[in-house]
Automatic annotation (TrEMBL):
Gene3D superfamilies: Metalloenzyme, LuxS/M16 peptidase-like (3.30.830.10). It is an enzyme of class 3 (hydrolase). This is Peptidase, M16 family. The keyword Ligase does not apply. It holds the Pfam family Peptidase_M16. One of its GO terms (biological process) is protein processing. Residues 477-730 form the Peptidase M16C associated domain. Its EC number is 3.4.24.-. The keyword Hydrolase applies. GO terms for molecular function: metal ion binding; metalloendopeptidase activity. Keywords: Hydrolase. It comes from the Bacteria.
Amino acid sequence: MKVYNIEEQVNKIKKLSTYNVADITDIDELSAKAVILEHKKTKARIFALLTDDNNKVFTIGFRTPSKDSTGVAHILEHSVLCGSKKFPAKDPFVELVKGSLNTFLNAITYPDKTVYPIASCNDKDFDNLMEVYLDAVFYPNVYNEPKIFMQEGWHYELVDDKGSPDKNGEVILNGVVYNEMKGAFSSADSVLERSITKTLFEGHSYGEESGGDPDIIPTLTYENFLDMHSKYYHPSNSYIYLYGDMDMANKLDRIDREYLSKFEYKFVDSKIEEVKPLEKMKERNFEYPITESQNEENATYLSWNTLVGGELDPTVYMGFQILEYVLIDAPGAPLMQALIDAGIGEDVYGGYANGISVPYFGVTAKNSNLDRKSEFLAVIDGTLRKLADEGLDKEAIKAAINVFEFRAREADYGSYPKGLMYGLSSFDSWLYDADPTMHLRFENIFKTLRDEVEKGYFEDLIEKYLLDNKNTAIVTMTPKKGLTTKKDNELKEKLADFRARLSKEELRKIYDDTVALKKYQSEPSSEEALLKIPLLSRDDISTEVKMPKFEEDSVKVCKKNIKVVHSKVFTAGINYMKFIFNIDFANEEEIKYLALLKEILGYIDTKKETYASLATNVNLNSGGVSYSLEAYATNANPIDFTFGFCVNSKILYGKEPWLYSIVAEVLTTSKLEDKKRIKDIIAEVLAGKDRLVSSGHMTALTRAGSYISKELLFNDLTKGIEYLKFLESIDLEKDFDKLYEKLSELSKKTFNINNLLIHTICDDKGYKHTFDGIEDFANSLEKSDVPDKKSSLTTEIKNEGFETSSMVNYVARFGNFVNHGFKYTGVLRVFKVLLSYDYLWNNIRVKGGAYGCSAVFSRSGNAGFVSFRDPNVANTNKIYEGIVDYAKNFTAGDREMTKSVIGAISEMDIPLTPAREGMKGLSAYYSKVRHEDMQKEREEVLNTSEADIRSLAPLLEAVLSDKLICAVGNEDLIEKDKKLFKEVKHLFKD
């Protein structure tokens, strides 16, 4: 295996004549060499991180301060990926998603920058992605095709009630970003965030909405849109980041030769203007929408926010993140607890808002009342003064530092490549003309903070930045019934009035533009244009499946054999231990109580510790201990599942005895009789119920699936709509004795040694210590026999429409093909790519204006289709009904099929962190899916033909014949299409 020679790469970079090397340094924490360069001709800024990581990353970013709230930067971010000089196809981005081995592919708009990141483990693929992105940002087709702006930004349409062009129809507004931001502005938490920045940064670009305010987006002209690109999208205003084990000199030479050298230096005035201090504290009130059925009492947001800075001081920057955890986020955090104890709000959140040139620190109490504002401010001020004077809990600070250092060293960002996250972090200083490595060198930062704990450093942060700071905004946000309906009606009236004032010629133009846009959206890119997009071949893909590795074992304790699954993975000294207690005995009611128990454990006192000291203990000794309810497919049976109550932990080798002790304490001695604490926990969970709308696509898909799938019914019972309704139904004053009895009974039934399986992810060195200290833990568990019983979940077809104050919708269809006698095939993976990025994409997103859409197919036979931030309901359902014909009449050449096969393999071969690789081993253990099953699936994917796609038509017809539908969204739009549902109801309780 060839080792990446970093020094050799550095020497090659030094020889490049078109760049100046500004600095070369080691970043020991990342095992990387940082090279900072400047392109001689254009002064483009380059930051290269050379390291032995084959998940390579490229990002090009531009400083793009917002002058208004038209969302021009956001619309441009979408639009430049809709065709370019070298790659004139209408949607190269989608073509790349369908046909590359990317591990990340996206674009992101921030308040002061726009970035275009890609990642891939395949060098040829990486080059292809990089070239398409560079061409997109520097030579986009937006100058030649105004319809791109109309489609991605906004436009008028003259249509009938089914969305078809109609000369006599009504005028409506549509556009992908327009609808995306209507969805964003439907979340009360998002509206509050925008209200805070609008108040704190009034008159500054940070006070504008870079994503676009739906009320203001339609004022953006095509000319101003183009001006934004011509001004800011120039190499002289660019920031180019490269990471990984690539031939860095070769990549830099290519970037210069193909792109940067074609430009002359240009002065771009993009500097982020200085944030002016506020002369005095500012107070403003805003409104947010709720439905007519929701209660306005106890629904006000109270928010205190103050400018603190620290972006270019890495110690302050990290110090404030730690202070946020200590003051607000940790269980029992003093500022959060003081507000909760005072009865001011049911949830308290906030903290350090960074990623801009002047970060701010805020505290928000949710579900409060306006008349509590003075008390809210007094509690914050009094608590902070007391903490500054008397001192913070030093052990709590050390624990918080440990949490952040553990995260930094683990570098586990889930599905996001760590190289990508390092790059995004570098922008937090680089964009403001400072060292891009500043926040990546965490070793000395954590050492300094640890050394300063006893010297009052964190108390000084409170004293210096949070107390008596005039740069403060007090923002309150009060609920307004029917505000969404009112705004919708006002918009309809405005558009009707606009239509009435149009001349025949102007109406004709809107109609002609509508027809022309629909035609443009319906016509595929030419074969010639598609052929210009670089594509790997099937030969570039490994034919061998990579199976997750695990070993079955057992450990004998208390005369009982506990099953053990060991995922043998190198984890750099971290043991990921998971205790899985089987809960197949539970009925639907018990599952909901177990879901509540999961919320309670770790956040309530035990016999030995308060929940605050418990959290400190956990954070001082581990990377975290958490609780979850999970479903696992079992025994190679696609519709058979086992359910588990899981304790999840991350510890360093040697900490196993501590872990067994703390888990035993939490599981067996938590004070479930603490009525007040449980009431606070339930209120806090309910206060976060807006996530069901902000993630409405998952809410709708899970609910639709729950009508027929026991797996998804379990998910709905534990974190979906059914769980919400369960929590809303609890009356602690009347029912606490029953609740306590249920939780106690279920704790004994669940935390039984006969229910237990232990999963560990570590290497052989770590495995030697895995069972150190297990005896006391095992002794603490119940020992009684467990009945051999499978969960008796009963599904029911409901087909519901859930009305909310959202301005957009999330529409899901669901079915199961195994129930109709069909079997899972790898061909479905390829079809998912085609469906998500061809049929659904073109009809729901491109033509329909929704922000997103997707499809899912699983081995269990579950199949679903869902839209995201969608202006339609019935029209989207009609598109779902057309899926069968799409498959039945599918035709494609070899290139299109190859592209979709590569896209499917890309999803299968995503690089995994050690923890995720280990979890795949656990899933393989439960499912009993064999190597030959996985190899067969991979071969089915690799050999998929257009005939195979057509052969899916009967399977898809069976899925849609189940006629399962659920929608979450705008109450007027769902009401309008209520004939689709058996029942229409409000999502949230009155």
